Amino acid sequence: MITLEMMPPLMFGGLVLAMLIGFPVAFTLAAVGLSYGFLAIHLGFFDLNFLQAIPGRIFGSVLSNDLLLAIPFFTFMGAILERCGLAEDMLDSMGQLFGPIRGGLGYSVIIVGFILGAITGTVAAQVIAMALISMPVMMRYGYNIRYITGVLAASGTITQLVPPSLVLIVLADQLGKSVGDMYLGAWGPSVFQILLFAGYTFVLSIIKPSHVPAVPKEARTLTGWALWKKCLMGIIPSAVLIFVVLGTMMMGLATPTEAGAMGAVGAIVLAVIHHKDFASNDKKILIAGVIAAGIGTIVGTLFFGDEVAASLRGLIPVAAPVFKVAFAITYLAVAWICIRAIGIPDLRDLIKQGYETTMRITCMVTFILIGSTCFSVVFQGVSGGEWLEHLLTSLPGGVWGFLIFINVFIFFLAFFLDFFEIAFIILPMIAPIAQKILAPVVGPEAALIWFGVMLCVNMQTSFLHPPFGFALFYLRGVAPREVKSSDIYWGAMPWIGLQAIMVLLVIAFPITVTGLLDKPTNVDLNKVKIEVPQIDMPPLDLGPPK
User: Fold this and answer.
1) Where are the alpha helices (DSSP H) in 178-219?
2) How many angstroms separate the CA atoms of 399 and 104, rounded?
3) With contact defined as beta carbons under 8 Å apart, do 101 and 212 qualify?
4) Residues sharing a CB contact under 8 Å with residue 278, sequence separation 6 or more, in sequence order
5) Residue 85 in contact with residue 275, Cβ under 8 Å?
6) CB count, 10 Å around CB of 290?
7) How far apart are CA 461 and CA 287, in angstroms?
8) Which of 84, 246, 109, 240 lies closest to 168, judged by CA?
9) What is the pLDDT along the chain (546 residues), one digit of tens a residue?
10) Which of 15, 86, 338, 424 is such that its CA lies 20 to 30 A from the CA of 480?
């Protein structure tokens, strides 16, 4: 006879077994959840009315979730930027800038990977684009093949951690935290991760200089201002787009969905700017739009900010029309550039491909969410939450034992599952437990931010380690035939170790995540005093008594 205590482990085991068969995860989740739901009804653990929570949660929490609207916008932005030529220009210019030093091409791949991660947010696009461009060049100048494959794969996976990563948006939604806080928490580990990658390259250039040789001086085609100009032409537009997407969100000027929409439009603008058919008249319109945006921003900051000087308030009737006209010019310039994108055949095809990619990924995420909802409702109905909480809170080592166990569990789970599947299946189960266990360490507000960023760093490895490291598959698909699969797998091993070190650093030093977050205000309610001001009022003259 199956008891209530047996149901949670049976559900979990059934899910693992069904996934090993290879059936699509979204439908596996729904099938396992509904099957055990009907079994629980038959055994009398709950009645049929309990399953009404499934459609209620799907339509009330999944399909009406405004935060998840940001996913198609950021996906479209990455799909456009991955093919618009920006990566080629940046890798070429950075390669020539750092090429004369040992490991210079490796440094350029790491830096460009970080910048592209901040504006694309997609691993596949980044790995493929950088491999197609940089791998032949690095092989030509004698770089070790295992270093080449490792640095290309690892620099592509950093996009999972660098805002505006799709992973962070999903984690924020599943943990019930704001996307802005999740982004702020991820900046520290993402920068430290890049420093670890660069440090490994530096050490390798000292220990084994033949593995990362310098590019001969005669191979450099650009020098001086021409080289710096090309570098800046790739970095400045990218920095503007990063500010438009992340800056407005972190300053509270835009929601994640609004920032994603601006990023999607900004990606089209960048694609047009980097196209060879971008004419001189178009450049003049772009410059006019940029100048107008600058004027509008300055006027808005001076006259409409929260801390406006009282003496400037009288000028608002004059400033308001200037503000409106400036941004009207900016909007017209952006609209013109988007129209130009439609008129250029290459870009029109690019936008169409971006729509198709966005549709596929968005549908996949939605179906996984629906399937995970079916599973989680039934799992909670058979007291799965209590079973899991008892299992995790009884681990030896307290907080640190819990963190080590969860990270090792996620690391091995990532051998077989994608990060979307881990986030939608595992995270809702362990998030309440993590909040309870980690709150005494970093405070209740920062606990889940620290936990989410930690898991994000961990899940980077899911793209690198065999047998199902997707970054390795992408690399295998575009690498020349002379590059062996064993070189790709062995080349990834040191970089997996660097990512594991980053996980340990985040566990040991929570300040790497919480340092940029707003500090909680601790108020002792016992010391709060409410003082009512005394108002001296003249005595009322009610006149002579009647």
Assistant:
1) 179-207
2) 41
3) no
4) 272, 340
5) yes
6) 13
7) 42
8) 246
9) 677 778 888 887 887 787 777 677 778 888 888 888 888 888 888 788 888 888 887 787 777 777 777 778 877 887 777 677 676 667 677 777 777 788 888 888 888 888 777 766 666 666 777 777 777 777 877 888 888 888 888 887 887 788 877 788 888 888 888 888 888 888 888 889 889 999 998 998 888 888 888 877 766 666 677 777 777 776 777 777 777 777 777 777 777 788 888 888 888 888 888 777 777 777 788 888 888 888 877 777 666 555 444 444 555 666 677 778 888 888 888 888 888 888 888 888 888 888 888 888 788 778 878 888 888 888 888 887 777 777 777 778 778 888 888 888 888 777 766 677 777 777 888 888 888 888 888 888 888 898 888 888 888 877 777 666 677 777 777 777 777 878 888 888 888 888 889 889 998 888 888 887 766 555 454 554 555 455 555 555 555 655
10) 86
Rounded-to-10 torsion of CA 415, 416, 418, 421: -130
Buried b (16+ CB within 10 A) or exposed e, 51-77: bebbeebbeeebeeeeebebbbbbbbb
Is 120 exposed, middle or buried, given 0-12, 13-18 or 19+ CB atoms closer than 10 A? buried
Instruction: Look up residue 52 and give its amino acid.
Output: Q
CA dist., res. 132 & res. 140, Å (int) = 13
Token reading at 363: 């549908």
φ, ψ (nearest 5 deg) of residue 357: -60, -45
CA–CA gap between residue 259 and residue 247 (Å, rounded): 9
Helix (H) or strand (E) holding 385: helix 384-393
Q: What is the DSSP letter of 51?
A: G
Dihedral class, residue 418 (left if φ above 0, else alpha if ψ from -120 to 50, else beta) = beta
Contacts 24+ apart (CB under 8 A), 390-395: 392/430, 392/433, 392/437, 393/433, 393/436, 393/437
User: Which residue has tokens 């996949």?
Assistant: 364
* Whole-prediction pTM: 0.75
SS3 content of the chain, % helix, strand, coil (to 5): 75, 0, 25
The Cβ of residue 509 has, within 10 Å, a number of other Cβ atoms equal to: 14
Buried/exposed code over 377-407 (b: 16+ C-beta within 10 A; e: otherwise): bbbbbbebbebbbeebeebeeeeeebbeebb
| Residue pair 161/189 in contact by the 8 Å Cβ criterion | yes
Cβ proximity of 175 and 451 under 8 Å: yes
Q: How far is CA 544 from the centre of its chain?
A: 78
Residues 171/424, Cβ–Cβ less than 8 Å? no
CA distances from 91 to 97, 106, 186 (A): 10, 10, 25
Distance (Å) of CA 45 to CA 49, 70, 323, 354, 390:
12, 38, 63, 47, 20
Token pair of 23, please? Answer: 């059936």
